[in-house]
Amino acid sequence: MPAPTEHPAATPAPSAGRPAFRERLWPGPLGWVGVVAFGAVLGVALLPVDDLLALVVAVLAVLGGLAVAVLTTPVVHVERGTLRAGTARIPVRLLADPRTLTREELRVEMGPALDARAYACLRAWIGTAVRVEVRDPQDPTPYWIVSTRRPDDLVAALRGTAA
Question: Which of 2, 12, 25, 124 has the fewest CB atoms within 10 Å, i.e. the most exposed one?
Answer without folding.
Answer: 2
